[in-house]
Amino acid sequence: MTTGPRLAGKTGIVTGGASGIGEACCKLFVEHGAKVVIGDIDEAKGRALEKELGGSAIFRRLDATSEANWKQVVDEVMSSWGRLDIVVNNAGMSGAKGRPPVEDTLVENWDAVFAVNSTGVMLGTKTAIPAMRKNGGGSVVNISSIFGIVGSPAGAAYHASKGAARTFSKAAAVQCAKYNIRVNSVHPGFTDTPMTLDIHSDPDIHRKRVEMTPLGRLGKPNDIAYGVLYLASDESAWVTGTELVIDGGEIAW
Fold first, then answer.
1. pLDDT in tens, 57-84
2. Pseudo-torsion of CA 189, 191, 195, 199, nearest 10°?
3. Considering just the CA atoms, what is the radius of gyration of the chain in Å?
4. Are 116 and 64 in contact (CB under 8 A)?
5. Is 226 labeled as catalytic in the residue annotation?
Protein backbone atom coordinates (compact mmCIF):
# COMPACT_ATOMS: atom_id res chain seq x y z
CA MET A 1 0.00 0.00 0.00
CA THR A 2 1.29 3.46 -0.91
CA THR A 3 1.75 5.84 1.99
CA GLY A 4 2.62 9.50 1.75
CA PRO A 5 2.85 11.52 -1.47
CA ARG A 6 2.47 9.37 -4.57
CA LEU A 7 4.46 11.66 -6.91
CA ALA A 8 7.25 12.88 -4.63
CA GLY A 9 10.17 14.26 -6.62
CA LYS A 10 8.40 14.06 -9.98
CA THR A 11 7.71 16.84 -12.45
CA GLY A 12 4.92 17.05 -14.98
CA ILE A 13 3.15 19.03 -17.67
CA VAL A 14 -0.66 19.07 -17.95
CA THR A 15 -2.25 20.57 -21.04
CA GLY A 16 -5.64 22.17 -20.68
CA GLY A 17 -4.48 22.44 -17.09
CA ALA A 18 -6.33 25.60 -16.12
CA SER A 19 -9.82 24.13 -15.78
CA GLY A 20 -11.89 20.97 -15.65
CA ILE A 21 -10.07 17.63 -15.61
CA GLY A 22 -6.72 19.33 -16.21
CA GLU A 23 -7.15 21.60 -13.21
CA ALA A 24 -8.09 18.64 -11.02
CA CYS A 25 -4.95 16.80 -12.20
CA CYS A 26 -2.72 19.77 -11.41
CA LYS A 27 -4.16 20.07 -7.91
CA LEU A 28 -3.75 16.35 -7.19
CA PHE A 29 -0.22 16.28 -8.58
CA VAL A 30 0.88 19.13 -6.32
CA GLU A 31 -0.91 17.57 -3.36
CA HIS A 32 1.07 14.40 -3.97
CA GLY A 33 4.47 16.04 -4.15
CA ALA A 34 5.00 16.86 -7.81
CA LYS A 35 6.00 20.05 -9.52
CA VAL A 36 3.72 20.81 -12.42
CA VAL A 37 3.42 23.09 -15.42
CA ILE A 38 -0.15 24.30 -15.93
CA GLY A 39 -0.21 24.40 -19.72
CA ASP A 40 -3.13 26.26 -21.24
CA ILE A 41 -4.11 29.05 -23.62
CA ASP A 42 -6.38 30.61 -20.98
CA GLU A 43 -3.91 32.87 -19.21
CA ALA A 44 -6.36 34.34 -16.69
CA LYS A 45 -7.44 30.95 -15.34
CA GLY A 46 -3.92 29.58 -15.57
CA ARG A 47 -2.41 32.43 -13.56
CA ALA A 48 -5.15 32.15 -10.96
CA LEU A 49 -4.48 28.43 -10.49
CA GLU A 50 -0.74 29.07 -10.36
CA LYS A 51 -1.29 31.52 -7.50
CA GLU A 52 -3.58 29.08 -5.71
CA LEU A 53 -1.12 26.20 -5.91
CA GLY A 54 1.95 28.15 -4.84
CA GLY A 55 5.56 27.44 -5.73
CA SER A 56 5.03 23.86 -6.89
CA ALA A 57 3.10 24.97 -9.98
CA ILE A 58 3.86 27.39 -12.78
CA PHE A 59 1.62 28.53 -15.61
CA ARG A 60 2.94 28.56 -19.14
CA ARG A 61 0.95 29.39 -22.22
CA LEU A 62 0.90 26.15 -24.17
CA ASP A 63 -0.88 25.70 -27.46
CA ALA A 64 -0.98 21.90 -27.71
CA THR A 65 -1.05 22.10 -31.53
CA SER A 66 2.27 23.97 -31.73
CA GLU A 67 5.44 21.86 -31.84
CA ALA A 68 7.60 24.93 -31.23
CA ASN A 69 5.56 25.82 -28.13
CA TRP A 70 5.90 22.25 -26.85
CA LYS A 71 9.67 22.31 -27.28
CA GLN A 72 9.88 25.65 -25.50
CA VAL A 73 7.98 24.40 -22.44
CA VAL A 74 9.80 21.05 -22.23
CA ASP A 75 13.18 22.79 -22.56
CA GLU A 76 12.23 25.12 -19.72
CA VAL A 77 11.20 22.21 -17.51
CA MET A 78 14.50 20.46 -18.13
CA SER A 79 16.49 23.65 -17.55
CA SER A 80 14.65 24.59 -14.35
CA TRP A 81 13.81 21.22 -12.81
CA GLY A 82 16.27 18.87 -14.50
CA ARG A 83 13.76 16.16 -15.35
CA LEU A 84 10.38 15.45 -16.90
CA ASP A 85 8.45 12.49 -15.49
CA ILE A 86 4.83 13.01 -16.50
CA VAL A 87 2.94 14.49 -19.43
CA VAL A 88 -0.85 14.58 -19.41
CA ASN A 89 -2.23 15.41 -22.84
CA ASN A 90 -5.59 16.65 -21.64
CA ALA A 91 -6.34 19.65 -23.88
CA GLY A 92 -9.36 18.92 -26.02
CA MET A 93 -12.25 20.36 -27.96
CA SER A 94 -15.67 19.04 -28.87
CA GLY A 95 -15.95 20.77 -32.22
CA ALA A 96 -18.91 22.50 -33.83
CA LYS A 97 -21.90 23.12 -31.59
CA GLY A 98 -24.19 20.12 -31.65
CA ARG A 99 -21.38 17.79 -32.75
CA PRO A 100 -22.68 17.21 -36.30
CA PRO A 101 -22.96 13.66 -37.67
CA VAL A 102 -20.91 12.39 -40.61
CA GLU A 103 -23.16 13.79 -43.33
CA ASP A 104 -22.99 17.31 -41.89
CA THR A 105 -19.29 17.32 -40.96
CA LEU A 106 -17.29 20.18 -42.43
CA VAL A 107 -13.66 19.55 -43.33
CA GLU A 108 -12.50 22.68 -41.52
CA ASN A 109 -14.22 21.55 -38.32
CA TRP A 110 -12.79 18.03 -38.70
CA ASP A 111 -9.28 19.47 -39.08
CA ALA A 112 -9.66 21.81 -36.09
CA VAL A 113 -10.84 19.00 -33.81
CA PHE A 114 -8.07 16.66 -34.94
CA ALA A 115 -5.45 19.37 -34.45
CA VAL A 116 -6.17 19.48 -30.72
CA ASN A 117 -7.50 16.02 -29.86
CA SER A 118 -5.12 13.97 -31.98
CA THR A 119 -2.17 15.98 -33.29
CA GLY A 120 -1.77 17.72 -29.93
CA VAL A 121 -1.54 14.33 -28.22
CA MET A 122 1.12 13.19 -30.69
CA LEU A 123 3.16 16.38 -30.24
CA GLY A 124 3.06 16.19 -26.46
CA THR A 125 4.16 12.57 -26.50
CA LYS A 126 6.82 13.09 -29.14
CA THR A 127 8.37 16.06 -27.38
CA ALA A 128 8.39 14.32 -24.00
CA ILE A 129 10.27 11.23 -25.13
CA PRO A 130 13.83 12.65 -25.34
CA ALA A 131 13.43 14.41 -21.98
CA MET A 132 12.02 11.31 -20.26
CA ARG A 133 14.79 9.13 -21.65
CA LYS A 134 17.31 11.27 -19.79
CA ASN A 135 15.82 10.35 -16.42
CA GLY A 136 15.31 6.68 -17.28
CA GLY A 137 11.59 6.71 -18.03
CA GLY A 138 8.29 8.44 -17.48
CA SER A 139 4.55 8.30 -17.93
CA VAL A 140 2.44 9.83 -20.70
CA VAL A 141 -1.30 9.91 -20.06
CA ASN A 142 -3.51 10.78 -23.01
CA ILE A 143 -7.07 11.86 -22.23
CA SER A 144 -9.39 10.31 -24.78
CA SER A 145 -13.09 9.57 -24.17
CA ILE A 146 -15.55 6.71 -24.10
CA PHE A 147 -16.43 8.14 -27.49
CA GLY A 148 -12.98 7.03 -28.63
CA ILE A 149 -14.22 3.46 -28.04
CA VAL A 150 -17.93 3.49 -28.91
CA GLY A 151 -20.14 5.45 -31.27
CA SER A 152 -23.12 7.75 -30.78
CA PRO A 153 -25.69 9.55 -32.94
CA ALA A 154 -23.47 12.63 -33.35
CA GLY A 155 -19.96 14.01 -33.27
CA ALA A 156 -18.09 12.19 -36.04
CA ALA A 157 -14.97 14.34 -35.76
CA TYR A 158 -14.86 14.07 -31.98
CA HIS A 159 -15.25 10.28 -32.06
CA ALA A 160 -12.58 9.84 -34.71
CA SER A 161 -10.08 12.15 -33.04
CA LYS A 162 -10.50 10.51 -29.64
CA GLY A 163 -10.24 7.06 -31.24
CA ALA A 164 -7.01 8.18 -32.89
CA ALA A 165 -5.63 9.22 -29.50
CA ARG A 166 -6.47 5.78 -28.11
CA THR A 167 -4.75 3.83 -30.89
CA PHE A 168 -1.81 6.23 -31.02
CA SER A 169 -1.26 5.61 -27.30
CA LYS A 170 -0.95 1.88 -27.95
CA ALA A 171 1.57 2.39 -30.74
CA ALA A 172 3.62 4.81 -28.66
CA ALA A 173 3.50 2.41 -25.69
CA VAL A 174 5.03 -0.39 -27.73
CA GLN A 175 7.66 1.85 -29.26
CA CYS A 176 8.65 3.58 -26.00
CA ALA A 177 8.66 0.57 -23.67
CA LYS A 178 12.39 0.02 -24.25
CA TYR A 179 12.98 3.44 -22.67
CA ASN A 180 10.73 2.64 -19.68
CA ILE A 181 8.32 5.29 -20.92
CA ARG A 182 4.73 4.19 -20.37
CA VAL A 183 1.88 5.51 -22.49
CA ASN A 184 -1.76 4.97 -21.57
CA SER A 185 -5.11 6.52 -22.43
CA VAL A 186 -7.93 7.52 -20.11
CA HIS A 187 -11.53 7.45 -21.31
CA PRO A 188 -13.95 9.60 -19.29
CA GLY A 189 -17.68 9.16 -19.55
CA PHE A 190 -20.15 12.00 -19.16
CA THR A 191 -18.31 14.43 -16.88
CA ASP A 192 -19.22 17.93 -15.72
CA THR A 193 -16.49 20.28 -17.00
CA PRO A 194 -16.44 23.74 -18.59
CA MET A 195 -16.34 22.03 -22.02
CA THR A 196 -19.59 20.16 -21.33
CA LEU A 197 -21.38 23.02 -19.56
CA ASP A 198 -23.44 24.01 -22.59
CA ILE A 199 -24.60 20.42 -23.09
CA HIS A 200 -25.24 19.51 -19.46
CA SER A 201 -27.11 22.75 -18.76
CA ASP A 202 -29.92 21.35 -20.89
CA PRO A 203 -32.13 19.55 -18.31
CA ASP A 204 -33.31 16.94 -20.81
CA ILE A 205 -29.79 16.02 -21.93
CA HIS A 206 -28.58 16.00 -18.33
CA ARG A 207 -31.37 13.64 -17.29
CA LYS A 208 -30.80 11.29 -20.22
CA ARG A 209 -27.06 11.11 -19.54
CA VAL A 210 -27.61 10.33 -15.88
CA GLU A 211 -30.06 7.60 -16.89
CA MET A 212 -27.41 6.14 -19.22
CA THR A 213 -24.90 5.90 -16.36
CA PRO A 214 -25.39 2.88 -14.06
CA LEU A 215 -23.86 4.63 -11.05
CA GLY A 216 -26.57 7.26 -11.33
CA ARG A 217 -24.64 10.51 -11.64
CA LEU A 218 -22.37 12.40 -13.99
CA GLY A 219 -18.63 12.35 -13.39
CA LYS A 220 -16.64 15.02 -11.62
CA PRO A 221 -13.16 16.16 -12.67
CA ASN A 222 -11.63 14.48 -9.62
CA ASP A 223 -13.16 11.14 -10.62
CA ILE A 224 -10.96 11.27 -13.71
CA ALA A 225 -7.95 12.90 -12.06
CA TYR A 226 -7.53 10.08 -9.54
CA GLY A 227 -7.22 7.63 -12.44
CA VAL A 228 -4.61 9.88 -14.03
CA LEU A 229 -2.76 10.07 -10.71
CA TYR A 230 -2.50 6.27 -10.64
CA LEU A 231 -1.13 6.11 -14.18
CA ALA A 232 1.34 8.93 -13.43
CA SER A 233 2.65 7.23 -10.29
CA ASP A 234 5.05 4.32 -9.86
CA GLU A 235 2.10 2.23 -8.68
CA SER A 236 1.36 1.61 -12.38
CA ALA A 237 4.96 0.70 -13.26
CA TRP A 238 3.80 -2.38 -15.21
CA VAL A 239 0.89 -0.68 -16.96
CA THR A 240 1.32 0.54 -20.52
CA GLY A 241 -0.62 0.52 -23.76
CA THR A 242 -3.96 0.17 -22.06
CA GLU A 243 -7.11 2.27 -21.75
CA LEU A 244 -8.59 3.19 -18.40
CA VAL A 245 -12.34 3.74 -18.73
CA ILE A 246 -13.84 5.98 -16.02
CA ASP A 247 -17.49 6.33 -16.91
CA GLY A 248 -19.73 5.23 -14.07
CA GLY A 249 -20.40 2.00 -15.96
CA GLU A 250 -21.93 3.55 -19.05
CA ILE A 251 -20.31 1.41 -21.73
CA ALA A 252 -20.78 -1.73 -19.63
CA TRP A 253 -24.49 -1.86 -20.61
1. 999 999 999 999 999 999 999 999 999 9
2. 90
3. 17
4. yes
5. no
